[in-house]
Amino acid sequence: MVPKPKDRTIIGTKWVFRNKLNEQGKVTRNKAGPVVQGYNQEEGIDYEETFAPVTRIETIRILIAFAAHKEFKLYQMDVKSAFLNGYLKEEVYVMRPPGFENNEFPNHVLKPDKTLYGLKQAPRAWYERLSNLLLENGFRRGKIDNTLFLKTKGNIY
């Protein structure tokens, strides 16, 4: 928490409520999470760049065909909290979610270091962090599609 700056946009927050269902369609649990109201962000002030590259379908098809030809095993993973793991380059100020007001510091706001759901720069920050991790661990970026990362062992892909 930091004192509310006078010359910056304060981005609002709201709660998003979701029911998780089982295979039969019955509610198994209720989930709630705060989301930033990114539509209040102003380009050039709250963020500079939002673009995050997306893999082309042709790249996925070629990868699957190559893996099938070489009899490789392919694994897929889902990072459930991906957008919460990108680092912010910009200075962003966010209101506290409803229910988290603080009477001791009524004019303070949150200044996150990492991205939050709803921020316009969250996809870019996540892709940047993921690609840096892969590059640091011996992968190299594809020449045709820069969302494809390759790691080789000797002369074998």
Descriptors:
two-stranded antiparallel ribbon; alpha+beta; about 160 residues; extended
What does the radius of gyration come to?
20 Å
**How much beta, percentage-wise?**
15-25%
Major sheet strand order: 1-6
Determine the structural class based on helices, strands and strand pairing: alpha+beta
The count of DSSP E runs of length 2 or more, i.e. the number of strands, is 8
Low-confidence stretches: none
Q: How do the helices and strands follow one another from N- to C-terminus?
A: EEEEHEEHEE
Mean pLDDT figure:
87
Distance between the termini: 48 Å
| Helix percentage | 10-25%
Q: Main sheet, how many strands, which sense, barrel?
A: 2 strands, antiparallel
Based on Cα principal axes, name the global outline.
extended
Number of helices: 2
Overall description:
The chain has helices spanning 57-70, 122-136, and strands at 2-3, 10-11, 13-21, 27-36, 93-94, 108-109, 140-141, 149-150. A hairpin with a 7-residue loop joins strand 7 and strand 8. The protein has 157 residues and is of the alpha+beta class. The longest helix is centred in the last third of the chain and has 15 residues, at 122-136.
